[in-house]
Amino acid sequence: MKSGTNKSRPRDGVDPKELIKMQTEVGLIESMLQSKTLTILVIVALTLIGGFFIFLSKMAS
Q1: d(Cα 12, Cα 22) in Å, to the nearest integer?
Q2: pTM of structure
């Protein structure tokens, strides 16, 4: 098998805007704009994860 044959490429007839909408981050942001609860949960999760990494860095030093 040739090594260059398995590259993914956009198919003909697929709009680039549709490809952007298929990305996970775009879907999350669109959902967060509609849901206050999801927005709060994402903010809390990011805060807890950030706090955990700060805790680990302080313990390591």
Answers
A1: 16
A2: 0.64
